[in-house]
Amino acid sequence: MRTLLKIMGLTAALATASVAQSAEPAAKPTIVLVHGAFADASGWNGVVAKLSQDGYPVVAAANPLRALKSDAESLSALIRSIGGSVVLVGHSYGGEVITEAAKGQGNVVALVYVAGFLPDAGESALSLSGKFPGSTLAHTLAPVVLQDGDEDFYIQPAKFHAQFAADAPAATAALMAATQRPVTGRALSDMATAPTWKQLPSYVIYGTADRNIPAEAERFMADRAKARKTVAVEGGSHALMVSHPGEIVALIEEAASAR
Hints:
This protein is of the alpha/beta class. Helix content is 42%, strand content 17%. It has a single domain, classed as Alpha/Beta hydrolase fold, catalytic domain (Rossmann fold). The chain has helices spanning 2-23, 45-53, 68-80, 93-101, 125-129, 157-164, 170-179, 185-189, 215-224, 240-243, 245-257; strands spanning 30-34, 58-61, 86-91, 108-114, 141-145, 151-155, 183-184, 202-207, 229-233. The longest helix has 22 residues, at 2-23. Mean pLDDT is 92; it is low at 1-23. Keywords: Signal.
């Protein structure tokens, strides 16, 4: 009889533990933030701070900005090293990179585009930014010729504020101009091969006053992708992650919780 009671007690304890375990909230996905051209990972600082405060694991990845294929392979390796689900967030050219890198990655659950490109196969950053009128980027660029004949492109510091981050404080834009990362001409012209937004839930946020990627191009890409949610920030510049981190965090967290 005592043995039976012990067994019954152990079974009850196991059942209680099982119920308690199942009641624990599911682990939050890791948010991987990918910067684009003329920026670096520090541009996400405001977004990282808020996401971390809200309990999300966050990685602000370093995007090499050398070529679409190799940039995507670098991000894919990072994704594979992360246990659990991942939400990829790409800014500008970083949108192309997350689109390519998500291919074959079973733990990627959503894509979030921050003033970013959602390319279809055969499209590039250059072709998409020129699809509609409005971009003034070409007139602000300063090329640096590389040994292999390609070029690195920077935005001229004196033109950076108005072109890239018009709604950010001038002092902040000056720091961004000084620390910007150049992108190669090859990266901007490389054509996408894997439009993973056709399979994965996608979310889009862009500024109506973006001078790098015209707002009309952003609307076109979001509509084509049947984005689950599209947010247009009135008067927002290309540097939304700096000037409007709150709106970006809200969209990321919506994407993360909609699984």
